Amino acid sequence: MMIRTAGPSDIPHIVAIEQIPEFRSYIGVWTADEHRRALADPDTEYFVACEDGTVEAFAILQGIRSEHHSIHLKRIAVRTPNRGLGRVVLEYAMSRVFQHYCAHRFWLDVFETNVRARRVYEAYGFHYDGVLREAILRDGEYHTLALMSLLDREYTARQQPGSITVTSALRS
Predict the structure, then answer these.
(1) Where are any strands of DSSP class E within 69-140?
(2) At 93, which helix (H) or strand (E)?
């Protein structure tokens, strides 16, 4: 498994992952053009996790130039769940946010009904900050988002002596 910065040639793979039908109630969906614009934004970073040359997961960070040192995990998605790849990508994102960008705060919003993802974020030290009630309209129905965040001191405290620090490409 290797994690690397995404480029324009990765956009069709990212769009394909987003469009997996069972993900519709858990992640947002953008067009290829929306991804191209976001990828070109200097305040945004995309990265992909590849296995045997195939994009298996991706994540989008926004606000990497924030004067407030607050970076948003816009999206994280894995082609095939239950393999632990989402956790690897999340750890990589946390490393980028706190070790590379020296952010103070890493935050995200997640569908309140996505209990599994919320539990993963909590296991990695994210705190529940509040809700955006009925913030997303999808298929004629409004959905509430939970806001969660992790501060730099919380990230540092969860690092245990002897743990591996991810700083660039990850390989196994």
Answers:
(1) 70-78, 105-111, 127-138
(2) helix 85-95
For the stretch 65-114, pLDDT in tens is 999 999 999 999 999 988 899 999 999 999 999 999 999 999 999 999 99
pLDDT of residue 171 exceeding 60, the answer is no
CA dist., res. 152 & res. 94, Å (int): 10
* Ramachandran angles phi, psi of 99, nearest 5°: -90, -40
pLDDT tier for residue 159 given thresholds of 50, 70 and 90: confident
Q: Do β-strands 44-51 and 2-5 pair in parallel, antiparallel, or remain unpaired?
A: antiparallel
> Which residues, including other chains, have CB under 8 Å from residue 92's CB and lie 6 or more apart?
3, 47, 49, 59, 166, 170
Selection from 106, 89, 103 nearest residue 166 by Cα: 89
- What kind of architecture, by CATH, is found in domain 2-158? 3-Layer(aba) Sandwich (3.40)
CA distance 95 to 26: 24
Position 122 scores a pLDDT of 96
